[in-house]
């Protein structure tokens, strides 16, 4: 059973620096900005679902 | 060994009389996210801080409740956590995920969990107190002790060995020990049950000591290592509005941010209460009303965010960003395990 229901994921760039700083994801119905860091439970779960082939992270706008 | 030495060994350490409770928010006093959530079918953090409700196929309501003065003789606390399962399933319940770094130096010792509980038992049977390690990839075998509640408050005391670590790597920052109060693994009944629980303490040693009461401020700060809410639902923020400094990065973007009150466990996930008119940027004798904030960067010490739509001002102006709680604004940072 999945730990979280993640329905969308897209890389997010800082509006100031333009650098990729987060994944904008919808987790259990809520929009979240997930840092690109192991140890954050949302990031770890996103990567698990990506590895399992059940989630794709879209490119940043 | 003298009787005094034997007693000290049973308790764990003569010097560990404060900060001996490894559980955070055991008295269920802190509820930054809000005090209730209904008809939940997913696992998550919804009411009392640090307490994660495990759905495991169940449907449940979870809430922070107040104890009445008539209860104080049997359960001397202001609040308790209620998990009311409407459709049960095995392994549903509530858990606290304790950072492994807080417990792994007690390998080989015994732990004693104590707690106050009442309610109705799953399928008319009993609950189970479960503990295991998990490092983000590997989990150790779960170990269990049954307990049976009644309709009256009782204090339970359960002593157990330091759990088997299995193949977990407890040096990882994702590593945890889970202490869970669950419908038993072997009970797949779907009957409703309720668990009211408070005064949860986990300590080293074979003897349960009286609950270690901490100040609200102390407990809140401990909780904020894992979750911080700038939100009117919390007792840490005032109702109405807050103001934080902002600067016009461009003519259509305001940059702002906050310093977190404590260093968080990890870089947190940010979320915002984006809604119509939730924020205003006051500058140069006027203001822009805008609806959305987005991440600009985040660390475990600081959140930087920006408004990038609905704004029109002169680049370079400084001002303040109003967080309008009554219009749905909030700023959350989540570094839970």
Could you characterize the architecture of this molecule?
- The complex is a heterodimer of chains A (61) and B (337).
- By secondary structure, chain A is α+β, with helices and mostly antiparallel strands.
- Chain A is built from 1 helix and 3 strands; from the N terminus they run βββα.
- Chain A has a 3-stranded antiparallel β-sheet with strand order 1-2-3, covered by helices on one side.
- In chain A, strand 2 and strand 3 form a beta hairpin.
- The longest helix of chain A is centred in the last third of the chain and has 11 residues.
- The relative contact order of chain A is 0.28.
- Chain B has 337 residues and is mainly beta.
- Chain B has 2 helices and 22 strands.
- The longest helix of chain B is centred in the first third of the chain and has 9 residues.
- Classes of the chains: A alpha+beta (61), B mainly beta (337).
- Chains A and B meet through strand 2, strand 3 and helix 1 of A and strand 16 and strand 19 of B.
